[in-house]
Every structure is written in structure tokens, then in C-alpha cells.
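Quick check before the chapter quiz. The format below is the same one you will see on the exam, so make sure you can read both the input and the output lines.
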Amino acid sequence: MENYKYPRIGIGIMIQNDKGEVLMGLRHGSHGEGEWSFPGGKLHNGETLFEAAKRKVKEECNLRVHDLKIVSLSDEMRYLKTDGKQFFVIGLLAMNWEGEVKLVEPEKWIKWKWFQLDDLPEKLLEATDLMICNYKKEKIY
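Here is the expected output.
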């Protein structure tokens, strides 16, 4: 179990299509195994929040996102006891995007799928679940 001395900063990026569906991936091989989440990950030293979001979305599902805005801040605590990880997660909404969804990292993701916000899969990564709750309530934290 990898214990972090301090909480890490994570990001999640909500991407909606013209039907109002959100893109989620089924996680594989790491943190949140078997759970659905938005594209995202850790912020790297030396990059801005928006640079990190653009990098992660391109790396994970081949899309280019634009016009990002912060919609959620959350404390992800569920995994602290099981895998020693605590994240402070910044949730972003991509107002515009382009490209075709592809499974770029099969070692980290099983598949990508579009879901209606009122018909989501049962097992969500904690940060994704918190972000959706905040987004629906129009509450940042």
C-alpha cells in the first residue's frame, strides 16, 4: 500500500455531448479499480490546472477540451484506509471539446461510455460522485 505523506491534488473533467450525456471510463489496474469516473488524474509539478486537464483528457480518451471552468472541489477520503491515498479533487467542466473518443490507455481503462446524468452506473469513483452531486446542486464544495 502506497501511503502519501500529504494529500495529492487530483482533477476530474466532465465532458458532455449534445444530448447532455457525460463521458465516463471504467477504471482498470489502479486507484478505483472497477469504478466509473470522469477522465482525470494527478496535477504534475509545474503545470497549471487547465494544462493538466487538457493533457489528461488527450492522454486518456483522445479528446481535446476547451473553455474549462471549475464546478467542484471535493475531499476524496474513501480510499485512505484501503490504499493509503487521499486526494483533494478539482472538478472541471469542458464547455467545448473535439475529437473522437478512443481507448488510448487500455492498461488503465476498460472502456469509455456516455451516460445521462440521471442514469449513471452504480459504482462511481468517489471524486466523480462528489463532483456530480456538487454540479447538480450548483454548489462548488
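If your answer matched, good. DSSP finds three helices and seven strands in the chain.
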